[in-house]
Amino acid sequence: MLVCELMGRVIARMCSGSKLPGLLDLSLSRPLVTVPLGVKLLKVTPKAVDLMLQQLGGALLRELTGRTRYRAWGIV
User: Domain HTH DNA binding: where (predicted)?
Assistant: First the structure.
């Protein structure tokens, strides 16, 4: 519940046309989120998914693989 509340605060600052709420819903519904998965489901570019993950910051979604390629994020 705390994660949902924190993510709701981040979404409140975004404009209405942003795909960031879709990424947050995706991250809550799946244990791991990857860039190709975000591209496929949100219909945006890989760079857009990377930028949205950076906007969320490390406090909400953590990078789990420790790699520079084929990274995956999840809620810890």
Answer: 20-76
**Neighbouring C-alpha atoms within 13 Å toward the C-beta of 29:** 9
- The domain that holds 67 is classified in CATH as 1.10.10
Max Cα distance, the chain (Å): 33
Q: Which domain holds residue 30?
A: 2-74
Range in 11-15, 29-33, 53-57 the model is least confident about:
11-15
What global pTM score does this model have?
A: 0.73
Q: Compute the distance between CA of residue 34 and CA of residue 70 in angstroms, rounded to an integer.
A: 7
Kindly provide the b/e burial profile for residues 28-44, where b requires at least 16 CB atoms within 10 angstroms of the residue's own CB.
eeeeebebeebeebbeb
